[in-house]
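Researcher: Please generate the 3D structure of the following complex. Treat every line as part of one assembly.
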Amino acid sequence: MPKKVLVLEDESSIRGFIVINLTRAGYEVIEAESGEEALELLGRHTDVRVALLDIMLPGIDGFEVCRRIRATNTSIGIIMLTARSQEMDKVTGLMTGADDYVTKPFSPAELTARVDALFRRAGGAVAASGENSGEISQPPFLLNTRNRTLEKNGTRVKLTQVEYSIMKMFMENPGKALSREEILDLVWGRDYFGELKIVDVNIRRLRLKIEDDAQNPIYITTIWGFGYKWGF
Ligand code: CA
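Model: Done. Output below.
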């Protein structure tokens, strides 16, 4: 099966650099120059597992593309391509549903490592620790590890693959204080080289989906200066 990824980038030199390197790494790369084109291509190529989205684009921007993809697709992996000077872009991108970001300029090794990590997770092929089937029930939550879904009070909560991985980690470690480094290792993998901030932003987004009041979280609690705890 071809390993399909989509690259949305209006600057042809950067797009070319990405295409060459991902092709070399064994991916089949679909190219888009505008957000509209990317959405159209994703509609036709439903087997794309990871999308790389530039933010500044001539038509709709990368955040809007991300939002529209996430409205219908929670399983695809999304990486935002951000500029070094635009620190806020990272947080905004993650809050609109992206899983990760890469800061320009990036090296081929960094690019490939990020895409590889997300590709494995988007495919659900990451080896589950322990049992790979069954349910974890912690009312009001029910996590189904067979089809990777979460219910709260019997209602499905739509999660991205990364959010699902975070929930699974929490529900497998109830009441345990987990450091941000530990969470990064457990969810993103030991070989992942990203920033700790990605943990905070993903948890902030997850809280919006699972907490009764995200401003006053009771399920995922913060342990100041350390990390997080799943507990009541
Ligand atoms: Ca651009």
